[in-house]
Amino acid sequence: MANEHDVHAPCRRNLDIILGVARRVANEPRLDPLLACIAGETCNLLDAERATLFLYDAKAHELYSRVATHSEIEVIRFPADRGIAGSAARDKACLIINDAYADPRFNPEVDRSTGWRTRNILAIPMTNLDGQLVGILEALNKRDGPFTEQDSRLATALAAQAGVAVERARLIEEQLAKRGLEKEMELARDIQAGLLPQSPPQLKGFEMAGWSRPSDYAGGDFFDIFEWGDGRVGLMLGDAVGHGVGPALLAAEVRALVRALALREPSPNVVLCDTNRLLACDVTEGRFVTLALAALDGATGIVSYASAGHGPLLALRASGECQEFESTGLPLGILPEAPFKLGAPIPLQRGDALLLLSDGIFECETRSGVDLGIEPVIAAARAHLGESAAAVLKGVEDLTDSVSPTGRFRDDRTAVVAKRV
Fold this sequence. Notes:
This protein folds into 2 domains: 4-171, Beta-Lactamase, CATH 3.30.450; 186-420, Phosphatase 2c, domain 1. 38% of the residues lie in helices and 26% in strands. It has helices at 4-26, 31-46, 83-91, 109-114, 149-195, 245-262, 268-280, 359-362, 374-383, 389-403, and strands at residues 48-57, 62-68, 76-79, 95-97, 121-127, 133-142, 206-213, 219-227, 232-243, 289-297, 302-308, 313-316, 322-325, 346-347, 353-357, 413-420.
């Protein structure tokens, strides 16, 4: 007769394995190493040839594998109600399948693709502390015979530890990914902000100012105020369609192209023609940029401009009158050979101001659910026309801030003003 020590030795061994797994999974915050650890210990505990963990994607209602020990398959994804794993997930119950090919739920395609043959399967649901499904743990091919109820009890104890650890590791992974994305977005925002002019060039008799407020970390709006030859200043304001990093990159490209082309070309419409031809080779269908480009001559006070689908440009007169100037061509990036006309000259007298706006300002949503419109914007700018250029822009910004129902904006807001003093 075997002594008591010999009888209880396997039980103690199994308990030691489960306790050891519990300690290891508690100290492993990384998901992939954790899954590999659980799969390996499942094979040790149940004397199985292989083990696979299927994680549950609640949004897609799918099961997918990220670990298959000694397997050539790295990822398997399928609906969460399909197959043996799907049955275990649906019923949240342990399944013992001791003749895999005799079970109609078994999918033999995996075996055919790897050259391996599955004999028997033990499938155990993994749940979190709230009893919600985290995944399915499968042990394959017990070496010394069929899986037993004792194996089921051991695997269930293991899965209880594994489910909580996997849930924790997934949450950590999601948080790290979110933080990483936020850091990237913050970097994009900082880079984009760094591309905006920190202080406008000096032009005798004029004040100039501009600001941009992206609706997200980075946006498609941009502006620039730059020297454009002797006694001239260039003003540009553009809007790359969309929000986020992609439009921000497109905006940076357009700004760089305009700056480079303006070094050798004094006419705004020619610069737009050349910019459009170059940009159309780079952008995909559905991507485009609206852009207003103006050249202000300090000696004459005359503004020459061209606009690629961007408008209106506003000339606020000291008398209180407001003139609107429309676009002179299509947005950039649509047709490579699109023509751009030069708009009518805009003379600025003392006290007059030229105002360039993005549509995120006059299309700002108000508390009543309708767009702000252009007239309140003109009124806000006109109310500060007797003050500095920066004060004119501040009046516009304060208006949009005051009418917004949430303080969040669905589109970027950008404005540039040049005022003759």
